[in-house]
Amino acid sequence: MKNTAMCLALPDKKGAFMAASAHSFKRASVLIGLLVFAGAGLTVPAKAAPGHVVSTSLCGDAYVLALVPPEHITALSWQADTKLSAAPAFLRHKNKGMASAERLARLHPDLVVLGPGDPLRATKAVQKTGAKVLSLNWTESFEGVFDNLRALGDISGQTQTANTKIKAIKTRLAALKTRAPKHPVRILYLTPSGNSAGADVFVDAAIRAAGGINHGATLGIKGWGRVPLEKLTLNPPDLIITSFFNEAYPSIANLRSRHPLMRRVMQNTPTVRIAAKNWICAGPRLINAAEDIARFMDALAPTETAS
Questions:
Q1: Long-range contacts (CB closer than 8 Å, 24 or more residues apart) made by 249-255
Q2: Least confident of 66-70, 220-224, 263-267
Q3: Which of 146, 156, 173, 226 is the most exposed place for a label (fewest CB within 10 A)?
Q4: Domain match, 205 and 132 both
Q5: CB neighbours of residue 255 within 10 Å
Q6: Over 80: is that where the pLDDT of 262 sits?
């Protein structure tokens, strides 16, 4: 039967109302009911938040753990049970997420959170079944962290939780400003491979948020790069912070941090460790790293006063 167009109580030129066609009566009745429902000051219930969330990377894990209720997490990343993870024990050994079409298909997610750089093509199959996908942006700043939190909050139905988390981090950043050291503290971040962080990377953001001076930038490092050992011996930092020495996988590159010049500087300079799980990427736990740095600088204060 040929469909007829629906006419829903539309006035003609004379002001009379045209009736809905008989063929469309049922649809018209439903629409009228919705209009009455809305007119009574009521709202149509919002769509349920995703209940089967899968993360494919440690960076994604950090964001998912910050916003998504544990009972809605189907899988964290395949590295969730390593020292690099901040996952609680009861989530470490659940299903393992990965940016793999086969792995995702087995997990039946309704939301996939990809880490920065994870291939979007791995999610094509699950998108066809209705799954939503969020690709987190790589960021080097707290503002970028806030953007990622907002994006995840919106797509996961946790907008209010995201706003609350952002507000809490901003409050903690403001508190760090009030406790900045009276005397500048030059801080060098050191990786097992002997690399460091220059300006405009997330480690730099954490150091500056804590009130310190990024000595890597002072030594001329741009972005991520090798520490110039000769410059370092002539201009050592006040504090060295390390990460991934205990958590990372061993490699030949790690031997550079055992260079005699590097060992000499480390032996003569206070050296402390930041838990790698706090800045596996610029994520919600970056503020934890900044607060740890501030505490380490506080510990230097008596020595500075005595000198």
A1: 251/192, 251/193, 253/192, 253/193, 253/194, 254/192, 254/193
A2: 263-267
A3: 226
A4: no
A5: 12
A6: no
